[in-house]
Design brief:
The protein is α/β, with parallel strands linked by helices. The protein is built from four helices and five strands. The mean pLDDT is 96.
C-alpha cells in the first residue's frame, strides 16, 4: 500500500495552445488538489507538469502510486529515460529528447520517493481521472482567457 496516491492529468486547447494540469493527492484520509496552467504549451508538457508538481509538493520521502492516463509519462519514466540519459538526452533517432527540461525536473522530483506507475484509460469513468481532467481543462480555459 503506497503512502500517497496521486492522480494526474493534463489538457491543452490546441496542441500547442493554452494548457492546464491537475493532480489529486491522497494520504492518511486527507486529500490535496493542485492545478495550474500555461498560456502556450503542449498536452505532453501539461501531463508531465501534473506529476512534477505533485512530487515537488511532498515534504518527505514516501512511497507514491501515480495514476495517469498518459502513456507518454509512464513509458518515458519506465522504459525510455534510461536510454535517453545514456545517449546524452538524445532519442533513438539521435534527435534531442522533447521536453527534456521537464523530464529532468521529473527525475529530480522523483529521486527521494519510491514510485509505482498505474495507467488508467482516459475518459472511461475513472472518478479521480475524470476530476483531474475537468480541473486541467478549467485551467486551460483560464489560460486561454488570459491571452
Amino acid at each position: 500500500m503506497p503512502d500517497v496516491e496521486v492522480f494526474t492529468d493534463g489538457a491543452c486547447l490546441g496542441n500547442p495552445g493554452p494548457g492546464g494540469w491537475a493532480a489529486i493527492m491522497r494520504a492518511g484520509g486527507h486529500e490535496k488538489v493542485l492545478s495550474g496552467s500555461e498560456v502556450h504549451t503542449t498536452n505532453n508538457r501539461m501531463e508531465l507538469m501534473g506529476v512534477i508538481q505533485a512530487l515537488q509538493s511532498m515534504t518527505r520521502p514516501v512511497s507514491v502510486q501515480i495514476c495517469t492516463d498518459s502513456q507518454y509519462v509512464i513509458k518515458g519514466m519506465t522504459e525510455w529515460i534510461a536510454g535517453w540519459q545514456k545517449r546524452g538526452w538524445m532519442n533513438s533517432q539521435k534527435k534531442p529528447v522533447e521536453n527534456q527540461d521537464l523530464w529532468k525536473s521529473l527525475l529530480l522530483a522523483s529521486k527521494p520517493h519510491t514510485l509505482t506507475w498505474v495507467w488508467v484509460k482516459g475518459h472511461s469513468g475513472h472518478i479521480e481521472n475524470e476530476r483531474c481532467d475537468v480541473l486541467a481543462r478549467d485551467q486551460a480555459i483560464l489560460a486561454q482567457a488570459a491571452r
